[in-house]
Design brief:
The chain has 2 helices and 12 strands. By secondary structure, it is mainly β. The protein has a single domain, classed as Tubby Protein, Chain A (Alpha-Beta Barrel). A 12-stranded antiparallel β-barrel has the order 1-2-3-4-5-6-7-8-9-10-11-12. It is globular and about 40 Å long.
Length: about 180
């Protein structure tokens, strides 16, 4: 698991939202959460066994000027794998930082062009979520490309080994879920 540089994510809607994550067309993770609850905490599990692999723990901030932090926790060891944090820069274009287990920022997920981002907010999830993955040094480390379809689906392609694939994949799904809840 997480040995590739290319991942597919398919999202299904029902009473909640479910994500199915594939590596080389093999299911590696699944997760579900209820959009009716405000809590963004949810778990990622093995699709074959149902064993929890990762959990997301929300840490609310004390002020409205700061965005909440979402820790990615390894369900087997209880150790923090990394953190996702939304940067409040603009309502036109959202940005999320990915930090490693030591708290160092290793990448930024930057939403695509502002006009497309604004249209996505107005049209809900009809327009797919897509963004660049920028390494801490400023180089492009990957892309998230959404596909226009009835059910949300996107691919995550990493161009470098600088970023831990599990942090990039799980972090991107957390960012997509936050976008969905805030629409």
């Amino acid at each position: 698991m997480f040995e590739s540089r290319y991942y597919e994510v398919r999202r299904e809607f029902g009473f909640g939202t479910a994500y199915h994550i594939y590596e080389n067309q093999t299911p590696i993770l699944k997760t579900a959460y209820s959009t009716l609850q405000r809590s963004e905490s949810f778990r990622f599990s093995d699709p074959q066994t149902g064993t929890d692999q990762f959990g997301i723990r929300e840490t609310p901030t004390a002020t409205v000027d700061e965005a909440n932090t979402y820790d990615i926790i390894d369900a087997q060891t209880g150790e923090r794998v990394g953190t996702v944090r939304r940067n409040i820069i603009s309502h036109l274009q959202h940005e999320y930082t990915l930090s490693n287990d030591d708290g160092h920022i290793v990448a930024t997920l930057r939403e695509d062009r502002p006009p497309v981002a604004v249209a996505r907010r107005l049209l809900s999830s009809i327009l797919p979520f897509s963004c660049e993955i920028i390494a801490s040094g400023g180089t492009q480390a990957g892309i998230v490309t959404g596909a226009l379809s009835l059910r949300d689906q996107f691919s995550i392609e990493l161009f470098t080994t600088q970023i831990d694939p599990q942090l990039a994949v799980v972090g991107t799904i957390v960012a997509d879920a936050i976008e969905d809840i805030e629409l």
